[in-house]
Amino acid sequence: GCFFHVWTEMGTMYSPESLSATVLQPDGETLPFVLPEHESERLERLQELVGGHLEVVAIRGGRYMVGCETAKDVPHVINHVATAIAHDSEAIQAEDYLAGTFVIVTHEALA
Fold first, then answer.
1. Which of 1, 12, 40, 85 would you label with 107, given CA atoms 20 to 30 Å apart?
2. What average pLDDT does this structure show over 64-85?
3. Are 77 and 71 contacting, i.e. CB atoms less than 8 angstroms apart?
4. Do residues 35 and 46 touch, judged by C-beta distance below 8 A?
């Protein structure tokens, strides 16, 4: 296929694939999402999506799941999809779980 790259003002290269993300909602719904090119906007959008300060969990395939680090400190809903992915990647302890909304991103998106 043909690939095109987007140059940001920092000279970093982002392919469209590197900015594609998947939102994992606690009710099990998954939604495709495209992150902004600019780093500050990208972090803001991720914080809006998950509802707070970012917790980053490394998963298989060089990707990450990003969630809210304080999600378990308030009444919350267990995110079974995100928890299963984290268990599969051995990213969290077997008895641990993830709560709230998580977003799967590429490592380029967090660079």
1. 1
2. 96
3. no
4. yes
